[in-house]
Amino acid sequence: MVKDLIIHNAGQLVTCASPGGPKRGAAMQDAGIIADGAVAIKDGVLTAVGTSDEILEKYKAAELIDAEGRAVVPGFVDPHTHIVYAGDRLNEFELKIKGAEYLDILAAGGGIISTVRNTRAATEEELIAAALGRLDRMLACGTTVCEIKTGYGLDTETEMKMLRVIEALDKQHSIKIVPTFLAAHAVPPEFKGDADGYVELICGEMLPQAWDCYSGSHFASEATPFFADIFCERNAFTTADAERIFASAAELGFRLKAHVDQFTNLGGSRLGVEHDAVSIDHLDAISEEEIAMLAASETVGVVIPTENFNGGKMQFAPARKMIDAGCAVALTTDYNPGSAPCPSQPMAMAIACRYQKVLPAEALNAATINAAYAIGLGKTHGSIEVGKRADLNILDSTDWRMLVYEFGGNMIAKTLVEGRPSVRNKG
Questions:
Q1: What is the mean pLDDT of residues 155-170?
Q2: Does pLDDT of 356 surpass 70?
Q3: Among 229, 207, 230, 211, residue whose Cα is nearest residue 220
Q4: Long-range pairs, 259-264, Cβ under 8 A, ≥24
Q5: In the chain, what's the furthest Cα-to-Cα distance?
Q6: What is the pLDDT of residue 427?
Q7: Can you tell me the distance from the alpha carbon of 247 to that of 230, in angstroms, rounded to the nearest whole number?
């Protein structure tokens, strides 16, 4: 049987295979390693996975890639990013070093609001050009799938502009993109003191228009999930606000996500689980009771060590406790202009290992198969399994653990997206 491509002689073929759903508990320590592994690829899809002898004996291919004994891992999945924006927050970076707290910066009109001003003023073309550069940096670090949120518009016009930009990025870049609508990211200046009025605008106008935008896009025709998200936090939105937005979003057909327990515990984790959110993200202040609830649910807990590292905080999400309790845990960069300007999932993995006591195999599974389930793509992406998209990283190492052992560089020798060497433009 003739295939398009065979990759063989992988000293370690690290599959992260998990056909029954995201990995939990002890299963997160199993990276699914095949020694002297190989894969066969046809039409961008993995059609066979096994040892080199098995694959080469059974199949022929138009092209062969010899991994030369190096490790091969799945393409990384980044389930939480904010990479469509204009400007930067370099001045706030210095303020944080001097001791300023993020919520204080936000309350003073900085943080998200400063990025909102710049993003509102930018053209679609400017936003696309800037975001393509960020996607390039993510791809260079091995990411082949990512979620992108709106949330730097906070008015109907700009939020829809951001959705159009996100769709354009998916058409132009080889990274597969999943869109999320995050109008409830902060209360905009024009609604200062009237959060209820802004929530009403989100529910009555923005969410319906966002759904219409999605319905007319190629995302809908390709059955790519579309999420609604909310930042449930002090100086942002309450759990009552989240209840209203969740109800309106679910009625329209959105799947749900939530930023919760980043700084304070307002009961957001409980709310997300009760509403069957696909993921709840941050979780720095999650309670023991909520960890147990999360473990008993289908919701994925997404932890964000890059944000804690960048902010110089030691209140990392209790990822070790969450894994031991049986939660499905995923990792993300949270790539954004303020709290986590980081394009590298391997860096997120390295921080999680050191500061959250996540084992290397757990970190890899969290950044691949579990991250894919956190954005509704676990059945098609995130692992090296027959029938999934052929997104692969060939490492510059014979041992995949070098990804997290060595940090500050780039261990990726070659990235393949849909079985083809990665390039920015699909055409």
A1: 98
A2: yes
A3: 211
A4: 259/229, 259/230, 259/231, 259/232, 259/233, 260/232, 260/233, 260/286, 261/285, 261/286, 261/290, 262/233, 262/307, 263/102, 263/103, 263/233, 263/234, 264/233, 264/234
A5: 69
A6: 46
A7: 12
pLDDT at 109: 66
Give the helix, strand, coil percentages of the chain, each rounded to 5.
40, 25, 35
* Cβ neighbours for 218, distance < 8 A, ≥ 6 positions apart: 167, 170, 171
Question: How confident is the model over 268-276, as a mean pLDDT?
Answer: 97
pLDDT mean over 313-318:
88
Which residues, listed in sequence order, are joined to residue 279 by a DSSP beta bridge?
Answer: 257, 300
So what's the pLDDT on residue 426?
52
| Distance (Å, whole) CA 339 – CA 337 | 7
Torsion of CA 75, 311, 150, 421, to 10 degrees: -20
Closest CA to 79 of 182, 29, 148: 148
Topology annotation, domain 2-75+382-421: Urease, subunit C; domain 1 (2.30.40)
The CATH classification number of 76-374 equals 3.20.20.140
| Single-letter amino acid, residue 64 | L
pLDDT-above-90 percentage for the chain: 89
End-to-end CA distance of the chain: 28
The yes-or-no verdict on residue 103 having pLDDT over 80 is no
Can you tell me whether residue 326 is helix, strand or coil?
A: coil
Structure tokens at 418: 């849909």
Two structure tokens written together for 130: 């800037």
Q: Alpha helix locations (H) across 259-368?
A: 268-274, 288-295, 305-311, 319-325, 345-355, 360-366
Q: Which residue has the higher pLDDT, 234 or 108?
A: 234
Domain ranges of the chain: 2-75+382-421, 76-374
* CA dist., res. 113 & res. 108, Å (int): 9
Among 418, 394, 401, residue whose Cα is nearest residue 10: 394
